[in-house]
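>> received
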Amino acid sequence: MNKFLTTAVIAATLAIGTPMAAQADSNRHDDRRGGHSRDYRDNDRRDHREYRHSDRRDHRDYRRMKRHEFSHWRPHLERQHYRSFGRPVFYDDYYRVRAHDRRGHVVFLNVNAYTGVILSIGR
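>> returned
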């Protein structure tokens, strides 16, 4: 009777613990992309193709876009509460400029020269 009870408890523990471990494994984070990573083991090939194509849309073809001067993007940045801009320096495809944020702290903005999007903010 004691062996039967022990075996039943072990079987119940394994039955309850296995789905929880599988669920915890599928909810991983991927820090490089800033969001949830997909677990491809559970998906079919069609999902793979859709994900690859949607990822390609994020890359812009800058050869077809017009690069604007920093003065073009300055009003947009002022609407986002940045002020007192320093001299912008142009790198490969972005401007790096010193500015003050809404609290008056000095920050360095990396602004995309083609879209005006703030790429990063450093102190």
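>> The CA atoms of residues 10 and 117 lie 57 Å apart.
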